[in-house]
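Help: why these numbers?

___
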Amino acid sequence: MKFTKATNYALHTMLTLVTASPAKPIGVQQLAESQGVSPTYLSKILTKLVKAEMIESISGAHGGYRLSQKKDDITFLDIIHAIEGTASLFECNFVHGDECSIQAVMTEAEGKMQSHLRNTKLADLVQKQP
């Protein structure tokens, strides 16, 4: 199982925005340079985060991006769903009737992972940093 690079960049971008002052939006160029990614690629990721209403885009010379939610409300799972979608990681391709025992194990494992990601907030990381 592997998340895309877009999710990696989204998580790091959101961590940057969580630690930033809400009064001063951060430009895409600065966000991109801090991660060593092209501004064009990061813009596509930022668009998904705006669409998910996690951040907002501020126009103008002093524009950029900032959180649109309280930082204590943003979970890892929210960010992953904004980038990856909400489809299940595993789907059985065989017809077993009502219940596939393999699908049941995979669904349970995914549920546990989602629970952990839902209960882990970006603000938790900020509190752990020195």
